Amino acid sequence: MSGKKRSFASDAPPSETHERGDEPDRPMPNAAEAIDRLEIPFNALGVDPYGISKAQLRLALSVFEVFYRHYFSVRTRGISHVPSRGRAMLVGNHSGGIAIDAAMVVVSCLLEMDPPRLAQGMAEKFIARTPFFGAWTSRIGQLPGLPEHAERLLEDERLLLVFPEGARGTAKLFRERYSLVDFGTGFMRLALKTGTPIVPFTVLGGAEAFPTIANAFRLGRIFGIPYFPIVAYGVPLPIPARIEIEYGPAMLFSGTGNEDDDIVSAHVGKVKGAIAEMLGAAVARRRGYAPDSDASR
Amino acid sequence: VKVLVVGVSGAIARKLAQRLLGAGHEVVGIDRRPWTKAPLAFYELDVRKRAAEDVFRKTRPNVVVHMATVSALDLAGEERHAINLGGTRAVFEYSQEYGVQHCVFVGRHTFYGAGPDSPLFHREDEPPQELNRFPELADLVAADLFAATALWRSPELTTTVLRLCYTLGPSGAGTLARFLRGRRVPLVLGFDPLFQFMHEDDVVVGLALTIERRLRGVFNVAGPQPLPLSNIVREAGRQPVRLPEFVMAGMLGRFGLPKLPVGALTHLKYPVVIDARSFANATGFVHAHDEIAAIRDFRRAFP
Question: pTM here?
Answer without folding.
Answer: 0.89
